[in-house]
Design goal:
This protein is of the alpha/beta class.
Length: 644
Amino acid sequence: MNQEGQRQVRTDPASLEIRERARAQRIPTIWDRYAALGSQCRVGELGICCTICHLGPCNLGLPGSKRPQVGVCGAGIDTVAARRLARDIAAGSAAHSDHGRGVAHLLLLAARGQAPGYGVKDEHKLRALAAELGVAQDGRLTNEVAQDVALACLAQFGQQEGPVAFVRRAPARQQETWQRLGITPRGIDREVVEVMHRTNMGVDNDYRSIVLAGMRSALADGWGGSMIATDLQDVLFGTPRPLRAQMNLGVLRADQVNILVHGHEPQLAEAVADAASDPELVAQARALGASGINVAGICCTANEILMRRGIPLAGNFLQQELALVTGAVEAFLVDVQCIMPGLVDVASCFHTELIATSPQAHFPGMVYMELSEDRAPEVAREIVARAVANYARRDHSRVAIPEHRMDVVAGFTTESITHILGGRYRGGWRPLNDGIIAGRIRGVVGVVGCDSPKHVQDQGHLDLVYELLARDVLVVQTGCSAIACGKAGLLQPEAAFRHAGRGLQEICEATGIPPVLHTGSCVDNSRILTACMEMVKEGGIGRSFDELPVAAAAPGWWSEKAIAIGFYAVASGIFTVLGSPFNILGSEALTRFVTEELEELVGGKFAFESDPARAAQLIVAHLDRKRQALKLRPMMYEAVPVGA
């Protein structure tokens, strides 16, 4: 197939196959529910409906309409839209940061011997964090150091004064900007609470002030809660290294007990993966006619266990219901975030048992088995035993697993990239910076985020990434966006020769990396921040993030978490393109503030562009402006046709 022919493959064929099967059996999925809603609320979409207090709800009208443009309390469109946006940022910051709190608490219990089955797997990273956090190490045992590191991280949540510890990782110029604007994050929880207070009726009414408070909350997530989650997960479960694995629904096995793990906190998946290798449970599965036990992941938990263990990844957010429609899943385990309540209805059509494991996420219709830290191995074994027993209830005549699965290379981190670029003793980012300076690589772009039934599945991610690769842009990915590209074959080193421009091809060939780097789950966007930090430290392409030839994009975002991620990227000086706008377009002033005026304050800004080709043009133009400002060389192969 030629290059253009390859680019015509858009929607994941495995998903199409199972969607047709669901439709034929009248099993509703997310696409059916979306269609059934019809047109969605235009007032809410514009951000001009206020439900902050019970003087309303106040549905405001746009200028020129007959409806009032102020609410009962007198708040205007700009205030109403800004309040909603800031609360979305706070909610997204809370979700990822609470994830970080949970990981820190697990490390604390493991260090105290109160979490059987968990312990320190990367002592080198633990001791590096200890040095950074000022934790004493001389003559101390690993668990003693781990306990104090956990306590130091937990203290970041309730801290009242002074910057969150990892803010010190940011370039000095970024820190100076945040201090000047008064948005340096203090305690993580403090910033979330302050947003909720400010947006209460009768408190902050200046849309600029409200958004800046939201940005401080986002920074507390990106440089606080999310960074804590990523670093401590590496300490507990091991820092990922690049490995080969497989993605898509075809990783399910018709001859095995299939257990799917979905959510965001890897302690569940890690415990279940250990239990599934228990010889006694494997023997029980074989006694029932299965050849073994197959554990696979969905969504961000999948990314975590993929990059640490090579456990296959069955799909991203939009595929969670489709996995059940294969008829081959014995147990579907969930913890928190991005879990559709609609799973219950789909599972009722099959033998699959849904099991909720988090005290924070209860689902009517699911079995509840809390995976508490003190009983994790025991509970995980009970769950796997239930799945094995459930295999006897499988109707083999209804099993239809798509053949589609794709080989991927995943698990890139700041540490592993440092090693790849320079080796064990001379590790560094100089080869990447030199590639940018020489004009082989135009720049680096993080393409992240979710996928939505509002768009053709995976298309926005793929079309954008194809355009960027052809223009010699190295792409870094997390979350469901990384899964979309993995299923399309873009997480393979050889993909550079099918899709990348000649300069990027040369870099990929020299280093052996794919042109699209999988760096983990959505909470691991903090790895992209630390990668940018390394680029600044290496020198030659900018003294702060806003000078680097870098950008970010989220073509299919829908979650509040994505809003928080976008704002900590922009607040860190990174130009960020979203495939759909925030619910703010009813306020011209607020829209102008986030898409134009923010750049003067923090160095980054948003752009909203639904067409992937035009989004790529915006990003490439931005990278070229940054290159020109740095007086870098022209692109080496600009005039050479792609694939020549």
